[in-house]
Amino acid sequence: MTASLLSLVMSTLLVAPPSSTPMPWGGWATVTVEDLPAQICAGQPVRFVFIVKQHGKTPLDGLKPTIVYNSGGAVTKVAATPGKAKGQYVADVTFPAAGTWNVTINSGFGESKLVMKPITVANASGDLH
Q1: Which residues does 88 contact at the CB level (< 8 Å), separation at least 6?
Q2: Do 125 and 47 meet the contact criterion of CB atoms below 8 Å apart?
């Protein structure tokens, strides 16, 4: 009986380490972007409004999210500021040139981020060429 009890305790410790051990899971959040304009033009600011929710449920205030964007060259980073709603953040991004841009929103909550589909930016006159 003692050997069985020892075996059970050892297997439990392997599956569930003591609570003082830091766990690598549980610290994630979702980023949801509100509507962007149908067309984005170079040199004109675009307002990104997004909400950060812990585990996709609870809006998170007090974060310092950033938006990082590039188009094959230099990387630009813009800080977001708190919006009107709980967990909402706002950042104005100005793409300097037409082309395809990669955009990532870093939530400010651990490593959680949103990598958006590439955004096509038109030139200042609205042409995509």
Answers
A1: 49, 50, 51, 59, 82
A2: no
String of DSSP letters for 43-55: TS-EEEEEEEEET
Alpha helices in 1-129 (DSSP H): 2-15
Number of independent structural domains in the chain: 1
Range of the domain at 30: 26-122
Q: Render pLDDT for 34-78 as a digit per residue (tens, 0 to 9).
A: 999 999 999 999 999 999 999 999 999 999 999 999 998 889 999
CATH code of the domain containing 49: 2.60.40.10
User: Structure pTM?
Assistant: 0.78
Name the β-bridge partners of 63: none
Distance of CA 61 to the CA centre of its chain: 14
One-letter amino acid for residue 34 of the chain: E
d(CA 4, CA 101) in angstroms, rounded, equals 61
Is-contact 50 105, C-beta < 8 A?
yes
8 A C-beta contact, residue 105 and residue 52: no
Contact 93, 40 (CB under 8 A): no
